[in-house]
Amino acid sequence: MQTYIDINQIQLAGPTFLTIGNFDGLHRGHQSLLRQLQQFAMQATTATGQPQTGLMTFDPHPLTVLRPQQPLQLLTTPRERLALAAQLGIGLGLLQPFTPEVAQLDARAFMRLLKQQLGMAALVVGPDFALGRNRSGDINTLRGLGEELGYQVYVVEPVDWQGKPVRSSIVRQALQQGDVAEAAELLGRAYTVTGEVIQGDQRGRQIGVPTANLSVAPDKLLPANGVYATRTKVQLGDQTAIFASATNLGMRPTVDGLHHRIETHLLDFPPNGESDNLYGKLLTVEFVARLRGEARFANLAELVAQIQRDIGHVRAILQTPF
User: Fold this and answer.
1) CA 274, 275, 281, 282 torsion-angle sign
2) N or C, where is the chain less crowded by C-beta within 10 Å?
């Protein structure tokens, strides 16, 4: 994928088949739209070649500008969305800064910009899509502008998955309830959280279960507090290694924790010949199943015993050899 930042800084000849949106989570519904975008582009292949496909998303999220008082919890960062779209074969990614000036553009000005800078030949969107100041550019308006400016509008209907609607809000609700398996069904992949390993209080190491404490972007949605069976990816040398892991989210009430933490214990780590020092590394945690909610134990011995049971459950769920 060719990635660009700020539409005003690029000039493409096109033709470009484009979709626009927040695409938070890039769930199965978004994926269906992107596949249809590619199909439309393939069907439009001419003697001059096949149109390129593109996705435009925003950073920061428009709500941080339009409703700054409203807390924001994202399923995916903007760059994660582009990376996921690239895996699906989208050729162009545009990470557009969302500013008060962009928010004030009317539909005509915005579409003219897309036409001039990207060579947009087609816009592929869902039925509720609208853009421009006060969302004035609804589907009918955009089609009218298309006749004037020279682009087509394709409308893709929402999809259900196994009889259930697929929406970012529904994925978010599942995660807030700790149902990471349901979230994975709607996303089409495990929900992931990426963070840098930071210094903790070494309590896990002291009880024989060392954990990596992750610093995560404050607007990233974390699943409900509790203990989860997870897989954790870490870069070791020039290769990415994946470890079964038990991940805890919460306040650690047994040890009177003062801060909410996400910490993961990597099973069978470190591999032979590798250092166990993960500080400063980026880890990506994939949530597979919730084992239990957060609990307070009478003493550290009870906590350690439960952690060992949790590790056993993780091995059973992920079928990792003992």
Assistant:
1) positive
2) C
Q: Are residues 134 and 63 located together in one domain of the fold?
A: yes
Q: Which two tokens stand for residue 164?
A: 């259930």
Bridge-based pairing of strands 282-292 and 191-198 is antiparallel
Q: Which residues contact 202 (CB under 8 A, 6 or more apart)?
A: none
- For residue 80, what is the enclosing H or E element? helix 78-87
Distances (CA, A) of 96 to 6, 56, 59: 5, 7, 6
Which CATH number is 37's domain given? Answer: 3.40.50.620
- The answer to whether the pTM exceeds 0.85 is yes
Q: 301-316 pLDDT, tens per residue?
A: 888 899 999 999 999 9
Q: Structural domain tally of the chain?
A: 2
179-224 pLDDT tens trace? 999 999 999 999 999 999 998 766 666 677 888 999 999 899 999 9
My answer on whether 137 and 213 are in the same domain is no
- Encoding tokens for residue 140? 């009918």
Contact in structure between 40 and 124 (CB atoms under 8 Å)? yes
